[in-house]
Amino acid sequence: MFRTSFFVAAVAALALASTGSAFAPSLSVGRTTFHASAAAGQEAASSTPRGKTQLSMTANLDLKGKVAFIAGVADSTGYGWAIARALADAGATIIVGTWPPVLKIFQMSMKKGAFDDDAVLSDGSKMEIAKVYPLDAVFDTPDDIPDEIKENKRYAGLEGFTISEVADQIEKDYGKIDILVHALANGPEVTKPLLETSRKGYLAASSASAYSAVSLLQKFGPIMNEGGNMLSLTYIASEKVIPGYGGGMSSAKAQLESDTRTLAYEAGRKWGVRVNTISAGPLKSRAASAIGKEPGQKTFIEYAIDYSKANAPLAQDLYNDDVGNAGLFLCSPLARVITGTTMYVDNGLNCMGMSLDSNALEGRNM
């Protein structure tokens, strides 16, 4: 029997597996057809062979000359990629941070053209990632790196992957940036109930999924142009009980949302930078699909998607580009007075207080 736990558990895994990012869950990996003309802006989302919704709207979005750093991109199926593509479609220069253990695979896949279909922009061109930086967001400075990581084969030959070092390198390469996206998270004990979560696992989830956002803004805030925006990705488990979404991840997401409000005030007054987060629905990304399943049963993310369709006000597919478009809006001048907010992009599932597919409602016409 599906429990809401699966919804966020799958969502969490999504980030865990992808780049160490347990961030956004959303249904299929398809795209919507949001368009903003070159004169009035640029298209915020293209379409994919895997299906489309029929959304089409025009907006004044022109991000030419803007630099966006997306932390937590390791493939083309997650929300980080979708946000990057939407920003690129509006003209922004895209640079990304990738978890060191999957960096070579990501770079090799890009070189082979594995992501080409998912990189197509509204004008038919392909999104260009100007530079990929190795980034492990659980380390703020080189002094934080333990010997076990330094000796780890997956980190062999890599340097400068702490948050402060990446910020310094980006400043050397680009001077200042305009957009900072936190699309990563990790909960090593996400499958454990909170009552069975160890202190180490709980703190690890908070470190990778919440404090990493604080640290990113600490280090990148000084090199962000006034009027810039930091965007993160969160889950409904931050405020609602989702049995099965454990390991301290629900607590970490609650921290992230609380920090979003505090950072909005502090960064707004200090640098004129806005800070927002998107609470997204379940996405069948490669990372989320990696969450285990029992023999003969669906994966957690498949349960989550089915649950959302059965219970959300809008019984429709949620695509990664839906979140990409929302991210584009929040990072654009159209949202210049919006900060400290959690935007729900989940077909309205967040507002429901009763499961329509519950056995308790059997026979009742809702």
Q: TL;DR?
A:
The chain is an alpha/beta fold. The chain is built from nine helices and seven strands; from the N terminus they run αβαβαβααβαβαβααβ. The N terminus is likely disordered.
What would the keywords be for this entry?
single chain, 366 residues, alpha/beta, 7-stranded parallel β-sheet, 9 helices, 7 strands, globular
Placed side by side, the strands forming the largest sheet appear as 3-2-1-4-5-6-7
Summarize the biggest pleated sheet.
7 strands, parallel
Oligomer: single chain
Please report which band the strand proportion falls in: under 5%, 5-15%, 15-25%, 25-35%, 35-45% or over 45%: 5-15%
Helix content, binned percent = 25-40%
Radius of gyration (Å): 19 Å
SS-based class: alpha/beta
Count of helix runs: 9
Instruction: List SSEs in N-to-C order.
Output: HEHEHEHHEHEHEHHE
- Any low-confidence stretches, pLDDT <50, length ≥5? 1-30, 32-58
How many strands appear in the DSSP assignment?
Answer: 7
How would you describe what is shown here?
This protein is an alpha/beta fold and 366 residues long. Helix content is 34%, strand content 12%. The chain has nine helices and seven strands; from the N terminus they run αβαβαβααβαβαβααβ. The protein has helices at 4-19, 79-89, 100-112, 147-150, 163-174, 199-220, 249-271, 300-311, 320-331, and strands at 67-71, 93-98, 129-134, 177-182, 224-234, 274-280, 342-345. A seven-stranded parallel beta sheet has the order 3-2-1-4-5-6-7, with helices on both faces. β2, α3 (100-112) and β3 (129-134) form a beta-alpha-beta unit. α2 crosses α9. The chain is globular. It starts with a helix and ends in a 21-residue tail after the last strand. The relative contact order is 0.20.
